[in-house]
Design a protein that fits this description.
428 residues, alpha/beta, Rossmann fold, Dihydrodipicolinate Reductase, domain 2, Alpha-Beta Plaits, 3 domains, eleven-stranded mixed sheet, elongated, binds NADP nicotinamide-adenine-dinucleotide phosphate, binds L-homoserine
């Protein structure tokens, strides 16, 4: 017989907040049994109370104080997004002795250290499973289950919107803009989808993952970021010709030269396990010295998958309250590892360009790469159009600084019409 009530205040009642209310209503008996108490949403903060919402029956307010200053709210779930006022509200909740659950990577990628310091000072929990890879329990895995490992790399597809877009462009030949609209309607995209397509959303998540995995502060500015806005149907079609697909990858590695953290599109061989991750699904590879390789796979965005993560956190906080175990799990980022400069990353490259279709042009291109000590893995030339030839070069692995040297020579070359795109290639 459960007779203790634990009240939740939701800051935000949109896609994820609505999902939390729906899953809590549907699975109430099981959730309360697992939590050891009756979990109840006492109120939800919104901007516009007149908006039509799927989940009815939850009291709405436009005043954050109604939640933050209510002594009868025990757990605050921040599901509004953005940095401010979310940061101010989260800090106030912690100072008022309320534990916090958040799905907000924008906030954590910038202010995790401050939030965990204030949580520690006030003996409160901060849980954030929904902030990275939607419903996949990757945060719990890294923070708890893999904690005995020395983790050397975390890599994967951690933005559902861009994976959805690239999948539809690849498999259905659809246009970028139409698929993005669809992803927005399905609740996958951020309120400003630029963050998704420009790679920023994945970069924020990668900063969080790298911080947890390597126990060192990796901030958003430490992550090299390129999005998918320059990927065209032609690149996708050439990639297919080369036996590859294009995915937006997030890669964090601990190397002897420092932590490498980068988000960019990449060509992957069709047989690569990440190449088969389609639609809104995410996948994260983690390599630890004891476990070896492991892979986590699931839905990376959407109301119910994210609610699954948020509610699991809420249940965990409730359990901690019931056992007096709050505030024990900090950010645990006590090392100060250097960040490896982007110019030292090593990759193979796909480069698509247009040149004059004349004698010695190929020889000149080859010389630019040879001077930068880069060797070609393959070259495709398409039939000439109006005196120009479209060429796709694939290089063997080289440093970014070497590639930049070759591209600088190419840009100054009078027979070059255009460099359409350069995309990194991942072999393993
Ligand atoms: P959303 O649909 O835009 O909902 C945001 C909610 O917060 C809305 O209810 C909005 O009120 C409210 N809100 C925003 N700013 C406010 C303010 N200044 N004052 C009062 N209320 C405010 O966003 P979402 O997709 O649910 O995302 C919420 C968070 O979860 C974000 O941090 C996002 O990055 C993260 N997340 C989302 C997903 C996903 O698949 N959508 C997955 C994982 C993580 P109104 O309803 O009145 O506009
Ligand atoms: N916009 C994000 C995505 C939501 O598409 O992955 C989940 O964090």
């Amino acid at each position: 017989m459960i007779n203790q009530n634990i009240n939740i205040g939701l800051l935000g009642f949109g896609t994820v907040g609505g999902g939390v209310a729906a899953v809590l209503a549907k699975n109430a008996a099981a959730i309360n049994a697992r939590a050891g108490c009756n979990l109840r949403i006492k109120a939800a903060l919104v901007r516009d109370p007149a908006k039509i919402r799927g989940a009815a029956g939850t009291p709405l307010t436009t005043e954050a104080a109604d939640i933050l200053r209510d002594d009868d709210v025990h757990i605050v779930a921040e599901l509004m997004g953005g940095v401010e006022p979310a940061r101010t509200y989260v800090l106030e909740a912690l100072r008022r002795k309320k534990s916090v659950v958040t799905a907000n990577k924008d906030l954590l990628a910038l202010h995790a250290e401050e939030i965990f310091r204030v949580a520690g000072e006030n003996g409160q929990d901060v849980y954030f499973e929904g902030a990275v890879a939607g419903g996949i329990p990757i945060i719990a895995a890294i923070r708890a289950s893999l904690t005995a490992n020395d983790i050397s790399s975390v890599m994967g597809i951690i933005n559902g919107t861009t994976n959805y877009i690239l999948t539809a462009m690849t498999e259905q030949g659809r246009e970028f803009a139409a698929v993005l609209r669809e992803a927005q309607e399905l609740g996958y995209a951020e309120s400003d989808p630029t963050a998704d397509v420009a790679g920023l959303d994945a970069a924020r998540k990668l900063a969080i993952l790298a911080t947890l995995a390597f126990h060192t502060q990796v901030s958003l500015t430490d992550v090299y970021v390129e999005g998918i806005t320059d990927i065209t149907a032609s690149d996708i079609s050439y990639a297919r010709e080369l036996g590859c697909v294009i995915k937006l990858l997030a890669i964090a590695r601990k190397t002897e030269e420092g932590v490498e953290a980068r988000v960019h599109p990449a060509l992957l061989p069709e047989r690569h396990p990440l190449a088969t991750v389609r639609d809104v699904f995410n996948a994260v590879y983690v390599v630890g010295d004891a476990l070896g390789e492991s892979m986590f796979y699931g839905r990376g965005a959407g109301a119910l998958p994210t609610a699954s993560a948020v509610l699991s956190d809420i249940i965990q906080v409730a359990r901690n309250r019931n056992t007096g175990g709050q505030g024990r799990l900090g950010l645990d980022a006590d090392r100060r590892l250097p960040i490896k400069p982007a110019r030292d990353y090593r990759s193979s490259y796909y480069i698509r360009l247009k040149v004059k279709d004349e004698p010695r042009v190929f020889a000149s291109l080859a010389s630019f790469f040879a001077e930068a000590d880069i060797s070609f893995a393959s070259i495709i030339q398409k039939p000439r159009q109006g005196g120009n030839a479209e060429i796709v070069l694939m290089t063997h692995p080289c440093r970014e600084s070497q590639l930049e040297q070759a591209l600088t020579s190419m840009r100054a070359y009078s027979k070059l019409d255009k460099i359409y795109n350069k995309i990194r290639v991942l072999h393993d």
